[in-house]
Automatic annotation (TrEMBL):
Pfam families: Cutinase. One of its GO terms (molecular function) is carboxylic ester hydrolase activity. Residues 1-22 form the signal peptide. The lineage of its organism: Bacteria, Bacillati, Actinomycetota, Actinomycetes, Mycobacteriales. This is Cutinase. It comes from the Bacteria. SUPFAM superfamilies: alpha/beta-Hydrolases. It comes from Gordonia bronchialis (strain ATCC 25592 / DSM 43247 / BCRC 13721 / JCM 3198 / KCTC 3076 / NBRC 16047 / NCTC 10667). InterPro entries: AB_hydrolase_fold (IPR029058), Cutinase/axe (IPR000675). SMART domains: Cutinase. PANTHER family: CUTINASE 4, CUTINASE RV1984C-RELATED-RELATED. Belongs to the cutinase family. Keywords: Disulfide bond, Hydrolase, Serine esterase, Signal.
Amino acid sequence: MSHRIVAACIAVLSLVAGLLVAATPQARSAPGDCPKIYVLAIPGTWANGSSPGIMSQVTSGLGPETQVAFVGYDATAFPWERAIYGKSKAQAVANTEGLALTMLRRCPGTRIALTGYSQGADAAGDVASEIGTGRARIRPGQVAGVVLISDPRRSRKDNLVGPPLRGEGSGGPRLDGMGWVLPRAFTICEPKDIYCNVPRDYYLTRIVGYLAETSNPTPSQILQYQAEASAIVGELLTRGGPGAIVGELSNKRARDQITSFSNFLQSGAHGTYTTFQVKPGVTAVQWAHNFLAGLA
């Protein structure tokens, strides 16, 4: 009898143990075939697909624990091309979030890193902002780091790498900033690059940037659009009321900003990030590469 009781107890214990094993949740650490860091790199306008431009240098040779994916999108800056700027950027944002979520579902222990240049930095920064402010399905803790080069929505509150700047991005700063990912998010801007460093009193240029950003409005960004429009108009009114607005749209003021933009294009400042040094002996591309390499 005692043998049967012992056998029954063993059987019950075995069954309970089996149920406990079955009920134990899977570990959240990444499996062996999962990267520690998943870098999503968004190229700039006209540097897309098989030709990711400086993003290839930023992400080359990051190490065995890091996987890199270049985000494809219909990159364009002008309405007469395949997609207007706002729609083009929205596509980049959606594609980036989709790739990140796909990886995190497969590899819950993997952490995401975001990087981008120019229009790609605009999109990468928006993704980081949505995550950092709780508006995305990705948690802030799942983001290892962010590095943006020539971000058209750079804010004076962002963590700047390189010499100090007086202006902000041509599209206006993000309303809520980077939120919880701010301590791990960095931005690089060549001082003469007006994509990311427009003087605050260049209102006409800021209006053009604002119109580009809102060329295909995203519902979740409506408050951002309203805030930037209010900031531009408010600053103009503070400077001198309706007369200041008329003056800003005058031929002379417009010519001054057009001349400035022409000088900027001729300077090639937007394309100097492989040589522009953020500190002695370290270029922007090298700094971004080293930052991403150090995340794993």
